[in-house]
Protein: Salicylate hydroxylase
Organism: Pholiota conissans
Amino acid sequence: MDRVRIAIIGAGISGLTLSHALDVFAERYPSLQIDIYEASSVLSEIGAGINIWPRTWRILKTLGLEEPLLNFLPHIPDDLPRLVFEIRKVDQPEGFHILDMTTPGGTTRLHRRTLQKILLACLPEGRLHLSRRLSSYEELENEVRLHFTDGSTATCVMLVGADGIRSIVRQSFVQGSVQDKMDIPTAIGEASKGDAVWSGTYAYRGLVPFEKLEESYPNHRAIETPVMHVICYPLPHERTVNIVAVASYLEKEGSIHSGPQSTSCDKEEDGEVQHLIGVSKWAVMSLVPLERFSRGRVVLVGDAAHGMTPHQGAGAGQAIEDVYVLASLLSHKLSNTSTIPRISEIYDAIRCPIANRVLNLAREAGHITELIAPGFEDVREGDADVPQEKLQILFEGLINKWKWVWNDSAEDDRLRAIAMLEE
């Protein structure tokens, strides 16, 4: 039997998780050859905290990652009601509580580098190829030929673009596709197809040691419980607080990002927020929802497929769900070089509508946290006379946008995909 050669572009969370999932499922179908091509010469630890919802945790358990991950978690994930966010209005000298978001199982926070290190430890020797930056690819009759900037080439029967928000694979993939599926400013037309666009948001991200925050602001709520918007939550194993402070400019949403990226927090803001500032700043990029995540022998996963704003805490989780479904299909007994295009179609049919829905929900949730909503048109930053009851109704709507997290199941999606393959 011919070996099914899988080329993964990118050694981030989605690429490494796909590689590991294929190994876990390999006993079902051992004829897979997997290669990961990474542009960097050294894998860096970019990023900060990530959310692991119960639906994501169940996948990680299935992939045998429970034991190493538990060493870094504050408690064993479960389905008990747990506080996710304490929502407060803080753009005034004296902030006040709006409501709490409590969900089944809550969410577990983990530093991105922790998951990356665990996945790297599982990686077979010789699979990861560093300093191999993809320049282009060409689809042939029964395979895909990869071209790298160093002049080398490689072939595979399935190319997986796991190369992030600025994906080279996606830029080639979407040529000729219609992307404009989102009611955002016409400035989106300035972007080339496949390019990430600016969400209009700057995120000030960083990690503050517990000890430093305790010294600066004793008993700050972020050491034990999260607040919003600034978003703060503890990473107990790291003994740090993860911070994302957000400044949004709605009129810039969908534009090409340019110019200075630095702003400063007003000294009149809530005193608790002041002790969390002093972090790195990022222009938050996102994608216009793609029409499809796969075509022929090329598929996109993770941020390459659906790079989204962080307002659903779902970017990493959606990437893991992508590769869980894809690995289940590729490891099936019906998987072979001739069925790869069918597997590609099924992956797209299952994952594209789900991930794009979450991408759109993240955008909508971001607007709510910035009080960009019907009935709030006249509210300005720092307004202290917004009725608390009105805010409670608004943020109850925000919580409703998270219901998919505990109402739906990635396992159901995987089983639907398998059933489609077996038809």
User: Anything to note?
Assistant: The first strand starts at residue 4 and ends at 9. The chain has 13 helices and 17 strands. Confidence is low (pLDDT under 50) at residues 176-191, 220-228, 259-277. The two ends are 22 Å apart (CA to CA).
